[in-house]
Amino acid sequence: MRSKPASAIHGWIVLDKPLGLSSARAVAAVKRAFNAAKAGHAGTLDPLATGVLPIALGEATKTVPYVVDGPKVYRFTVQWGEARTTDDAEGDVVARSDHRPSAEAIRAVLPRFTGTIDQRPPAFSAIKVSGQRAYALARAGVAAELAARSVTVRRLELVAAPDADRAVFEAEVGPGTYVRSLARDLGEALETRGFVTELRRLAVGRFGLNRAIPLDNLTALGHSPAASGHLLPLETALDDIPALALTEDQANALRCGRAVTPFSPQERACLSQIGNGATICATSGGKLVALAEVTAGEIRPLRVLNI
Question: Which entry of 16, 29, 85, 288 is 20 to 30 Å from 296 by CA?
């Protein structure tokens, strides 16, 4: 029996990823649900994490980098008194402390972890060390020295302290920030130890939980129109990027990989306002044609979109 040909479907699904499922398996499940030719996600969530996982289908996969680099919001619980190999509940205990910080002490150290800070990634991370993933080296018992990196924490707040052993935080962070590292470093700054026990992502860029659908609900809908009702337009990921309408001839040039030089005074004035080096959404007839770059008065295609 022949498999059904993949559908030409383009757009975004905001998945509320369940606990225990890897991001790769979540993408595969959504791809099957829509019978899509291509699928990818914007920002990995560990199996122990839940929440917003934006999944791109079809030509939307070409816009993933514009989502991955956006701000992310997390709510997470830190348990005090233990350090773990993975900086989360999966790891083995490597150190203990009897000290428990007060809510006042916690709030007092938070400014040290906001703004642009240096952060050492967890030993169990996907960062490559000499061509190998750090987590693979850690599992093999090889101690890899991971250098600290500059990351941005836009906001870090204590949400609740349900008991002496736990504290709940909410953080808005930039690309490359590890919540597990925040928990570890907070514990050390508070003269105790800490690791993440719960992690939920509330937003990735413009994609929030208000737009998310649980995987069980999505798969139950199957290939029905109701499932398609949860498919967001490809352009949703590009709301912050200026758009420029082109003629059909200009659009065809971009589709063929050629640069376009606008001739009308209005177009030139628009490009001047957008600025050299900026990325734009090139459109024609109301449809997105390409992501392009403004370079020396020209529009050069970066990613052509076949929709």
Answer: 288
